[in-house]
Structures are given as C-alpha cells and as structure tokens.
C-alpha cells in the first residue's frame, strides 16, 4: 500500500529543505568571506558578485572599488545598502572593512601596545630599552620603575649589578634587559616591604630571607631572558639559568608536566645559591657568606 504525505508532513519537509539550504548558504558565505579577508583579488571579485546578487545590480558593483566610484558618494556599496564599512567622520576615517563589521573576520589589529614611560637614566634609543619594550614583562617593569621614580644608572665604573636601596646600578657587562628585570625585583621587594630585615636577631632567618629574594629575582631573570630571546633579542645567560634548563629538560624527559619541570628548575636554582656554586657579581662571595657577613657587620 502506498502511503501519501499529509499537507502538514509536506510542509515540514519543505521547511527542512529550506533550513538545509540556508545552512549550506551560511557555510558558503563564511568560506567566501574568510577567503576575501585574506586575499585582496578574491575580495574584489566576491564583493562584486555579492553586490550584484543583493542589489540586483542597482548599486555600483565594480570589481575594483577604485573604478566606477561616484565622486559625490565615495562610500562602498555595502555602506550605501547596509551601513557597513562606512568611512569615518571628520574626526578620523574608519578603515574597518565591511566583512569585519558583519562577520568579525579580517578585522585590523588595533590592539597596539600602550606607551611606556621610561625610568630616569635610560636611553630611549638603547638596545636595552628596545629589548625591554619587546615583551609584556619588560614593558611592565619599565613602567613600574618610572612610576616609582627609580633611577637606572649605567655606571662604567661599577662592578656587577645591584639595587642600592634607591637606584639600580648596572656595571660593564651587566647592561642587560634580563639583569634589569632581576634588579627591579629587588626594588619591588623594598617598595612592598618584603626585603629581608637585617635587624632580625636571627642570623639564619635573615640569610634565608635574603637568599630567597635573590632566588626569586633570578627566576624572574630566567623567565625574562627566555621571553626576550623569543622576541628576537639577545639576552645574557648564566650558571643559574643553565641549572634551571638542565633540571627542566630532565623533568620533561622523565615524563613530568611543564609545571613540575618548572618547579624542578626552580629547585635547581635554589640549590646553587645555598651550596655556594653561585656567587655574587660584585665581590664573588657565596650568597650565604655575603649576607652572613652583612648581618655580622650590623650585630
């Protein structure tokens, strides 16, 4: 027996066909718009074809927007018909293409990095500043130093690099962006009241706190150096970074996660500070002796 569809069933089937066709059309349009956003020649052809279909040829649908343009109405057809991609007002032109307004595809990248103030003592045209400006960490460090009024002194007569409590001093061979991040970390500890208190009657507690601050600054220096290199700049390396990298890579080879590998790297850096293999840049002492002697001079 042959079954016949009722009117309702036929109507439902028709709606399903229409929905399927509409879905396919959306996909096709999406592909066309995506290609148009990436290729200027395809964009011109696609725009012209879409214009002719939508406006039945009543708008200026030239494949080349510079041709057949009404001098009294220089806006593109999508602006005339739909109000998309129109030029700006007298305060400034809007270069956003119409397919960005409609589909969010091919939009210009207007997320430029905000301007950064430089701390006193730095040359805006120096390699050091250029490197610092290449990463978010570097930019934030520069801005924080400027906001705090902290000077960075490039001193050809200084030995090593250090934070003296009021300014950062970088001696020959230490005019490095990652080193500046390290010393800025010391300055931040001071500003936030987190520095080791040399008046602490417990010598070991003071030494541990001071060395832990050094370890934190060194880790920040390692992270910064990695980021600067990834941004295409040179960054000095040191034994602490090598210790970190060796431990990190070994942890990865052992099947551990990146977070676990980072903890292994940090532990290797800390070990170098406490076992005396890492020494200060200004007098070559181990950090345990350096901060222990500093405490002894006060007590």
Jot down its keywords:
11 helices, mainly alpha, three-stranded mixed sheet, single chain
Question: Biggest sheet, strands in spatial order?
Answer: 1-3-2
Helix content estimate: 55-70%
Question: Are there runs of 5+ residues with pLDDT below 50, and where?
Answer: none
How would you classify the helix and strand content by structural class? mainly alpha
Report the count of strand segments: 3
Distance between the termini: 108 Å
General form: elongated
Question: What is shown here, in short?
Answer:
Keywords: Membrane, Transmembrane, Transmembrane helix. The protein has about 300 residues and is mainly α.
What can you see in these coordinates?
Keywords: Membrane, Transmembrane, Transmembrane helix. The chain crosses the membrane at residues 17-37. The protein has helices at residues 7-38, 40-55, 77-82, 98-103, 127-132, 136-148, 177-191, 203-230, 239-253, 258-274, 287-298; strands spanning 151-154, 161-163, 167-170. With 299 residues, it is mainly α. The protein folds into two domains: 7-103, no CATH class; 127-298, no CATH class. A three-stranded mixed sheet has the order 1-3-2, covered by helices on one side. A hairpin with a 3-residue loop joins strand 2 and strand 3 (167-170). The termini are far apart.
